């Protein structure tokens, strides 16, 4: 499934973002094609979350374009952006503590996009959520919270799934499980943008990557085409 | 003697229903958007005057007037949020408080210009003086009983809306973490507007019940605000049934005070509030959350 | 090295200070030339400035917004009456003791409502004020709901003719207002001022300045209670009577004061002074409008909060910056009192 004339699903051109007097992103160019998995790696404070938030419609870029299947979305409200098919798994999960796990998942469905995802399909994907579905979001383990956060995003039936630091603070075995779901999700037509500090896992799972350093793209390409040294250098900004 | 005491206790409990109606609108808005609407009391009085216009000028009965007033009041709340409060909610805790404060003064004095300082009352065609015998010589007023029943129904309906409906789910999500809700594509601005509209709908009910029960004047608002506030804080922030419990405690304390001296009525309410605050700083009941 | 714009703003700031000193000198000389009526108005202005400084200290700096400031004003009025009339103390001594009683009543009040946060704290102070007002109407010896007039010996303790009495009140209120304003300026430049600002922004940050934040809030609250009580006693000397409704007036000592600070500029020392002057001028020129005056005041306050939350002080800063084309420099007027030391 490709857009008209091979239009990329998401294309970002010359994106700059400021927080008050501080510039967080400098002329970012980025592209995600239909069905692709793209990683954005970078150290803490490199601008990864700013980029994700800008795509989701939170935080207005000062200049540049963000297009979803050719449609300008950089000035839309976040609710419009989600309605067009971008869903996010936010950094640190951000489950709503006074909602049960199931209610948290259902919040994702409020976007109202038609698609294959239902509560039943979610529970097939994450059977361990079933016994804890009526517990408060803050009472379950970090891994279970992350499952609920992913489930919440999937319930929005997205075309593009933004995963912000999904491995943060979780055991490697759980992280491996999340990444192992990616091929099936992509096969169902969902493109994925993964944002990670943990470089190796992200590079292993994705088709292409961008490395951010101080708000700029310091390196991009296919994981197999670059050396580990080149990645380290563009990640830390040192030779 | 004993029946006299029981009657007084009942009076206090039923009065608590009115205070709970005052309080839930305040509580809802605070719970969802952390706005303490200091103009709440004046909005109640404003709606009482609109109700007065509907009954006097259009000749509607008080309950027919209420059916007209509720949608009017909801629309007013929606507009108030869109035009005023949502512009100031991100500016720290003090700014919304002061804007609401300015609004309170504007409403009070506009009513004074429009209606004069005289106190008014809504005539309800006899039910305000009717009473019901519960046997053993215990009588209760029909209007207080009706007010209490309406309070219970209103709070029950709000409870269902907040904890059982999909809209309530979003309401609680926004209340927990507005930024996260934004990020997930929840239209938080609309949720806020609807929350204010619902609050004003309840305010309309409270206004009509108050206007039938007692005299009101343009300057009555601050007192209603204090009663609403006391009911909410005694019951525990963010707990709707708690607000009813808070209203009942306040009502009983006031009726008890009134037995000693008419002027003590309000004071006893204040003292109950301050005393409970010292013992239970978070109110009687905790905020509701999944188990 | 000073840049041209820095020098300009320095010149401006120096000239503002010069104007302020000249104005002070004029005020000191005023009773020799001014009419009795002007003395009355100015004394009222000074009281408003003092009240506004105190509300600004609590709300604008210390993060303890109140809607119950009339509590301590009334406590001051009733304490003064109790000491000077009922206990028969000399009026000047009674006046000097009112701040002590104000501070002593502020501490238990603070303890009762300290657990309420922000807006709930504000309404908590209001409930307290209304409670004390009801109790005041029940106190024996204070004339109950109607209140009482100061007997002639107390009323004339500061001057037997109305000229000497008004001059005495003029100087007393002037000294109080100036003292509170200068006190605020000094306080805000001190370690405590920095700690207060830190506390307002982030509860845990104050200890950085070596200040115990647990004690700071009640101390500030007690200090404000003391000053408000003194102002309440001075108001009693002006009006020559006490009553629950006038001595504990929500409108006079809280509502109007909040408007003064919002319009003048919240969180700056100059704001309350400017706001009080604007308030008096507006009130006198719109006096025949009645309640419409308060509607206008309320609308102006809302507009201020929406468009210029720093009030007239913020407006002046903005205009000055525009006309001097000082790009993103320190604010001029508010920095007179608020200069941050980093």
What fraction of residues of chain B sit in β-strands? Answer: under 5%
Secondary-structure-based class of chain C equals mainly alpha
Physical arrangement of strands within the biggest beta sheet of chain C = 1-2
Instruction: Tell me the number of helical segments of chain B per DSSP (H or I, 4 or more residues long).
Output: 11
Task: Please identify the oligomeric state.
Answer: heterotrimer
Q: How would you write the strand order of the largest sheet of chain B? A: 1-2
User: In CATH's first tier, which class of chain C applies?
Assistant: Mainly Alpha
Alpha plus pi helix count of chain C: 15
Radius of gyration of chain B: 19 Å
Overall number of domains of chain B? 1
Largest sheet of chain C: 2 strands, antiparallel
Mean pLDDT of chain B, nearest integer? 92
| Radius of gyration of chain C, taken over Cα atoms and rounded to an integer in Å | 20 Å
**Runs of chain C with pLDDT <50, length 5+?**
326-332, 334-342
Q: Could you describe the largest sheet of chain B, including whether it forms a barrel?
A: 2 strands, antiparallel
Write the H/E string of chain C, N to C: HHHHHEHHHHEHHHHHH
Summarize the structure.
The complex is a heterotrimer of chains A (239), B (291) and C (342). Chain A is α/β, with parallel strands linked by helices and 239 residues long. Chain A has helices at 48-56, 78-83, 101-109, 119-125, 142-154, 172-187, 199-205, 228-236, and strands spanning 10-19, 22-32, 37-42, 63-68, 71-72, 86-89, 160-164, 191-196, 208-213, 216-221.
Give a description of the structure.
The complex is a heterotrimer of chains A (239), B (291) and C (342). By secondary structure, chain A is an alpha/beta fold. Chain A has a domain at 1-85 and 159-167 and 190-229: Rossmann fold (3-Layer(aba) Sandwich). Chain A is 32% helix and 26% strand. Chain A has eight helices and ten strands. Chain A has helices at 48-56, 78-83, 101-109, 119-125, 142-154, 172-187, 199-205, 228-236; strands at residues 10-19, 22-32, 37-42, 63-68, 71-72, 86-89, 160-164, 191-196, 208-213, 216-221. Chain A has a six-stranded mixed β-sheet with strand order 6-7-8-3-9-10, with helices on both faces. A four-stranded antiparallel β-sheet of chain A has the order 2-1-4-5, with helices on one face. In chain A, strand 7 (160-164), helix 6 and strand 8 (191-196) form a beta-alpha-beta unit. The longest helix of chain A is centred in the last third of the chain and has 16 residues, at 172-187. Chain A starts with 9 loop residues before the first strand and ends with a helix. The mean pLDDT of chain A is 92. A two-stranded antiparallel ribbon of chain B has the order 1-2. Chain B has one domain (7-117, 164-279). In chain B, strand 1 (131-133) and strand 2 (139-141) form a beta hairpin. In chain B, 73% of the residues lie in helices and 2% in strands. Chain B has helices at 2-33, 40-57, 62-83, 94-115, 142-164, 166-176, 178-183, 188-213, 221-235, 240-260, 264-279; strands at 131-133, 139-141. Chain B has 291 residues and is mostly helical. Chain C has 342 residues and is mostly helical. Chain C has helices at 4-33, 36-61, 70-86, 91-113, 118-136, 152-155, 162-189, 191-201, 213-239, 244-247, 250-264, 270-285, 291-307, 311-324, 333-338, and strands at 148-149, 241-242. Chain C is globular, with a radius of gyration of 20 Å. Chain C starts with a helix and ends with a helix. Residues 326-332 and 334-342 of chain C have low confidence and may be disordered. Chains B and C meet through helix 4, helix 9 and helix 11 of B and helix 5, helix 11 and helix 13 of C.
